[in-house]
Amino acid sequence: MKFFSIILFALLLITGCTTLKPVQLSSNELQQQLSSGQLIKAGDELKVTLIDGKQLELEVVEVTPDTIIGNEHQVKISEIASLKTSEISVGKTALAAGGTAYAVSVIVGIISFFSLLAV
Fold this sequence. Notes:
alpha+beta, SH3 type barrels, six-stranded antiparallel sheet, 6 strands, transmembrane helix, Lipoprotein, membrane, transmembrane
């Protein structure tokens, strides 16, 4: 049972919890930063809001001076109104790991208690 608990805890630490963080720039500043390649890179996960209000989620494959190429979508930088980037949240990850460890210890305690009663 301890081995199972350690594996579960390790998996939680590896995966982590993510949160979407809005990029606080005007539309023009955002487009300039994206075109220069300073703001995002391949592998980043994004939620993009276009000027027409349409929202897309994508994992960045490549960034060119005028286009973000994602796993399922290509977006022209000139059409982007706002952007949220996915970041690992240390607090959420720690809370999830701690909560899981606590839950596993409670379950192990209950099982141990009832196994002692059965003897």
